[in-house]
Amino acid sequence: MSNWLAGAAEVTITPPLGVRLTGFAGRTSGATGIHDDLHARVLALEADGTRAALVTLDLLGLDADLVECIRARVAETCAIPAERLLLNCSHTHSGPASISLRGLGERDSAYLDVLTRTVAGAVRIACDRLEPAALRFGTAPVRVGINRREKLATGQMILGRNPEGPLDPRVYALRVDSAAGRPLAILFSHAAHPVVLAGDNLWITADYPGVAAAVLRQIEAGRGAPPVALFAQGCCGNINSDPVGADFEAARRLGTVLGAAAAIAAETAAPLEEVGLQAATRVLSLPFLPPPSVEEAAAAVAAQRERLKQQQAAGAPTALQQAMLEWAEDTLRAAREPERFPGQPFTVQVLVVGEVAFVALSGEVFIELALDIQARSPFARTVVLGYSNGCSGYVPTADAYPDGGYEVTDAYRYYGTLMIAPESERLITNAAVSLLADLAG
Ligand SMILES: [Zn+2]
Q: What is the dihedral of CA 277, 275, 138, 148, to 10 degrees?
């Protein structure tokens, strides 16, 4: 009978003041303060000589080159291949520009160089700490968010409040104790955009997930040395924290509620019956919606250029308008040479820990996809994460397209050039379910 080995590590990844924050357009300067530190946290696991690591980061997302850089370093120093390295971002909207979104903040290459080395180093530290461990899994009810797709009486879809809309009112917890019962790590997941602090905030903060991790750590410290508390963001593409654009007190409140619920999930967790790690990854090419005609695209460029001129003349801030002009120019390129835009790479990763399946998706995925994958998964315990191993933009349900709204008609202009097509939902959920079925044997 084989046993688990586990190790955990936590490092700060707080950038210096002055770096550009990302997540909101129109921020007028770089970071002017630090409210709370940002962290990278690692849970390394080993079973039967097979090693894997789950890494959570207090960042909005990761560009593909950063993912590659971290993967290469971890493969070299820890013998963990990309397939068994899960990188999840909390999606805090008050962190540094670690993902390139048009007009939403320039990357700081000096910081990102240190970031990738720090994260890879943390994985190494967690691997160096591997020791015999016991794993448990549990869930508890909690709700810190609200479905944000609100349809007005006029038919317009806005970023608002839709209390009847779907969400996942649960927190999932994977609890890892040493063989002697000392708490090592608790990885917990819930789905809600960390946007308690909004665009007017220029202080670095992990938002409510940072508070939740701190609260969980404090509660569990009662059992001995406090564990590493890792927050993994779920599929919150259409779920916002409730409230949005409030203050640090609201973030504290939400984080405390989530942290306490995570403690309940951890304390009531049942031991895993199986020991073993399995992983599989599929990189999809999601089809794009067809580009506009060359005439339409050229007219859009002219219109954006005109708008920029007007803003310059009025002395208004132009960063966002500059970005929209750039997007219009890229769209014109796509209209002229559609073959240069064959599809959006999208990563579906499955990591099975004992009998608990983690599905990690590289986008801002609507919660319905997570619920669908769970319902069709052969694993009774399936946790679906977004913002993992990079982030290519929103993935709405096919049903959401006719209603439009920010996630369908606007956000892709920050992320890239063309919007993915409605069939993306089915391609992603089918790929996830098929990988899960393969691993379930
Ligand atoms: Zn988002």
A: 10
